[in-house]
Design brief:
single chain; 248 residues; alpha/beta; 8 helices; 11 strands
Length: 248
């Protein structure tokens, strides 16, 4: 990766549904196969120097920072969506003219090879934004990647907003992106929170970039297993079983 690359890892979440067992750790510090979820994500990102990997922390930030003191960090003081989380890291990205990989700290099955494939396609295509997608025949509650008849990226439609035709689309958004830094920062400043949750969504950024005449693409390099996140005790157990099986 000759051009400079930074990563922003979203690690501010509380993981409310995981706390039904009485554990109050931040979501990314919950353990699977003996290690925090965040450990696996940072290991897969080890092709990026630590000083270029920014952790966006929030809930019980001291637990995350104590475990990973070598990484720069930004604080998301309120939980106002993924767009707000990335915007919290903006001061650490100002003046940077490389690419920014945005990923989630609760996706421990993501492989280094998938991150690298995403960055490679992004740079080869010259896109302002490339999102990592995956093809799944399962009915999963992920946003759908909508393309035109020629295969060109049009937009992301959230599962809850999708029409029956859009729900039938098999290409899913994983929530992992690479952006050229300057267009990303400009688009973050234009995000609106006029939705039912009152949150700033990172999924709105690709559409904003398209409106500005920028190129946006999707890279379908992610497997169904890799896109699994951890939101419930059952999902934590599922991920742990898969990590243990991969170790055998």
């Amino acid at each position: 990766m000759e051009q400079e690359l930074k990563a922003v890892v979203l690690a501010a979440g509380k993981g409310t549904r995981l706390q039904t067992e009485g554990v109050t750790l931040p979501k990314v510090m919950r353990q699977a196969a003996g290690k925090p979820l965040l450990h696996y994500v940072l290991t897969a990102l080890n092709f990026i120097p630590q000083e270029n990997v920014i952790l966006v922390v929030g809930y019980r930030k001291e637990d995350v920072l104590a475990a990973y003191p070598a990484y720069p960090s930004a604080e998301q003081t309120e939980q106002k969506g993924t767009g707000h989380a990335v915007a919290s890291a903006s001061p650490l990205l100002e003046g940077f003219d490389g690419d920014v990989l945005v990923c989630c700290g609760d996706m421990p099955l993501m492989k280094r090879e998938s991150y690298e494939a995403l960055v490679r396609q992004h740079r080869e295509s010259g896109s302002a934004c490339t999102l990592l997608s995956g093809i799944s025949e399962e009915e999963l509650p992920y946003g759908r990647v909508i393309r035109d008849g020629a295969g060109k990226f049009l937009r992301i439609v959230e599962d809850k907003d999708a029409t029956p035709e859009e729900k039938a689309v098999r290409e899913l958004n994983t929530g992992v992106y690479v952006f050229k830094c300057a267009p990303l920062l400009a688009a973050l400043g234009k995000l609106k929170c006029d939705n039912a949750q009152g949150e700033y969504y990172l999924t709105d950024v690709p559409a904003l970039l398209l409106k500005e005449g920028e190129r946006v693409d999707a890279c379908p390099a992610c497997s169904v297993e890799e896109m699994l996140g951890v939101n419930t005790p059952a999902q934590l157990q599922q991920v742990e079983d898969m990590l243990l099986a991969a170790d055998r």
